[in-house]
Amino acid sequence: MRIFNELVFMAAIACLAGCGPGEPASAARTTGAASDGTSTSVQDQAPAQPGAPAAADAADRRSIKAQAEKFLFDEKYEEAFGVLRNYMGQNRSDQEVRLYFGRLLYYDGRGDEAVKVWEEGLRNGAEDFDLLQNIGLVRLRQGADGPSVYQWRGMRQAIESPGPEAEARYKQERLLLAVDALEKANRLRPDSIDAGQGLAQAYQYLGQWEEAIRVWRDLAARHAGNADLQVRLASALEAAAQPKQALAAIDQAFRLDPQCAAAFHFLAGYYQKNRNLTLAEENRRKAEFYGWLVAVGRVPYTEEHWRIYLVLVGKGVPDDPAAIEKLGVDRRAVIDRLTARDTPATRGMLATVCYYKRLD
Asked: Distance between CA 105 and CA 88 in Å, rounded?
């Protein structure tokens, strides 16, 4: 028997928010956009939860979820869905359970059914935001993946394609549905980063770069301290053949965060395309270095810190016992040296080492 784990479930739902290829990893920052301007992340946060339930309804909600999860513990999904369908038939206005039910359906590979459950709860009011956002994000994922990618209980697998024309038509239809739902969600909460990012990315997949730029600009203006949104805007501007404006957005990102890994990642790609390989490599290293650091003080990029980083992460070490043993000795010596110096920079690097060690 495999125990149903709510965290595993939410991680699967967060495939809507998964990092895409080419993004700099960072333990403490939101990810940046790919340097070619395409979306590298369908959504940066898991779909938002609705507001707290009324006290009179909280016990009923807990009870129905507990009943469903008894079946989920034994992977009896149909029985769990039956419990939730019966409840929804008698409690059509319960948005929290409706969202929960839809997410379970999506987790079980039934995206269209999830959307139908959510659509049945729409009331043409402000309370529709969470439902619209979830509908839009599922349609966005479908439009990004196409019909030849199947998601089921946290796994993704390729299935037979219906052919290029049918695949293109499917993607176009789903992306337009995503735009429709996310535009409505965005109008309800124009300051929502989640809904706004999803909408901008849907426009990007459709190749509607000016619309994407409009949404990114609005988000960046509403969240003036968010450096990563400036990078997303820069990527869209570059894709729309507006390089000067793109670099201006990157400058703004650095004013907000001089160690913004996503901005350095953008510059690495920008210089690579413009055949300035020296600057491309320099910015690639900075993106990697600042992406590794956790947010505990400022550690400047220097050649010495880069060499220390390479030892600490063991980059480029061959997979043989002698090399691994030597790496252990070198790493211990570096850590001792950092500890002895006791500066803000060395403390920041040691804190990062401790952070990743705790994750191990």
From this structure: 14
Check: CB of residue 266 under 8 Å from CB of residue 235.
yes
Positive or negative torsion for Cα 212, 143, 26, 104: positive
Please answer whether residues 281 and 255 qualify as being in contact, where contact means their C-beta atoms are separated by less than 8 angstroms. no
| pLDDT tens string 242-257 | 999 999 999 999 999 9
3-state secondary structure of 151: strand
Return d(Cα 344, Cα 299) in angstroms, integer.
Answer: 7
Structure tokens at 229: 């949104």
What is the sign, positive or negative, of the torsion defined by CA atoms of 19, 24, 28, 33? negative
The answer to whether 99 touches 134, Cβ cutoff 8 Å, is yes
Tens-place pLDDT, residues 205-262: 999 999 999 999 999 999 999 999 999 999 999 999 999 999 999 999 999 999 999 9
39: left (phi over 0), alpha (psi -120 to 50) or beta: beta
So what's the pLDDT on residue 146?
Answer: 94
Q: How many CB atoms lie within 10 A of CB 78?
A: 8
The SS3 call for residue 41 is strand
Q: Is the dihedral of CA 256, 17, 240, 283 positive or negative?
A: positive
Per the DSSP assignment, residues forming a β-bridge with 149 are 158
In this predicted model, what pLDDT tens digit does every residue of 116-161 receive, in sequence order? 999 999 999 999 999 999 999 999 999 999 999 998 888 889 999 9
Contact call for residues 249 and 231 (beta carbons, < 8 A): yes
Token pair belonging to 194: 């989640």
| Cα–Cα separations (whole angstroms), residue 344 to 98, 216, 305 | 49, 35, 13
Q: For residue 290, give the amino acid letter.
A: Y
Supply 200's token pair: 């901008």
DSSP, collapsed to helix, strand or coil, labels residue 355 as helix
